């Protein structure tokens, strides 16, 4: 199992122990996006996993919602320095989505309906560390927060939790995404303050 950074399983920690360096707590849920909010209808929504050989696994909205769902409660940390504790989500674990996918890949690229991408090591989204979330705080996920579905990988800065998610492609080599190509850190560990590439 992959090692988890402090704060991911922080139930016994004090509140201050759960806030990474340089972050401040918020009670609301700030809305930040790289572009305008797209309109993604569930009747046209699909989620696609493509392995490194090009094999595809696709779910439509109805099929996706028949998959086993989980209800993680996690702390989230944005690179713009806000943190929010004990956020409640509902979604499908990436472990479930990749259970029948044959792969020897080491990296994943997360894709969104608006063209946004972000990269993560595959080991960081397995073993109960990441979900495709369709609900937040007991309600369907709103469009402004990435609905109908967004990626959720809470132990990394929140730009890795892509909104309006449409799929995952698996790769043998790392492929930087939208913000990574613009100078954000390739990995994005909030506890190490990995906000930008070295030299920024």
Automatic annotation (TrEMBL):
Gene3D superfamilies associated with the record? Oxidoreductase, molybdopterin-binding domain
Task: Locate the region Disordered.
Answer: 1-21
> Which stretches make up the Oxidoreductase molybdopterin-binding domain?
35-179
Protein's UniProt name? DMSO/TMAO reductase YedYZ, molybdopterin-dependent catalytic subunit
Q: Which organism is it from?
A: Glycomyces harbinensis
């Amino acid at each position: 199992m992959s090692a988890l950074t402090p704060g991911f399983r922080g139930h016994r920690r004090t509140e201050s122990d759960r806030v990474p360096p340089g972050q401040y707590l918020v009670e609301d849920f700030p809305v930040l996006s790289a572009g305008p909010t797209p309109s993604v209808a569930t009747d046209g929504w699909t989620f696609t996993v493509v392995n490194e050989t090009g094999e595809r696994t696709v779910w439509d909205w109805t099929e996706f919602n028949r998959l086993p769902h989980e209800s993680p409660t996690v702390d989230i940390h944005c690179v713009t320095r806000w943190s929010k504790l004990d956020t409640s989500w509902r979604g499908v674990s990436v472990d479930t989505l990749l259970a029948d996918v044959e792969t020897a890949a080491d990296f994943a690229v997360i894709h969104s309906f608006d063209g946004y991408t972000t990269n993560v090591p595959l080991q960081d989204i397995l073993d109960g560390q990441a979900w495709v979330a369709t609900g937040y705080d007991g309600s369907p996920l709103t469009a402004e927060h990435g609905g109908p579905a967004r990626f959720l990988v809470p132990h990394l800065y929140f730009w890795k939790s892509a909104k309006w998610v449409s799929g995952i492609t698996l790769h043998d080599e790392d492929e930087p995404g939208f913000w990574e190509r613009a100078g954000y850190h390739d990995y994005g560990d909030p506890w190490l303050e990995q906000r930008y590439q070295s030299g920024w």
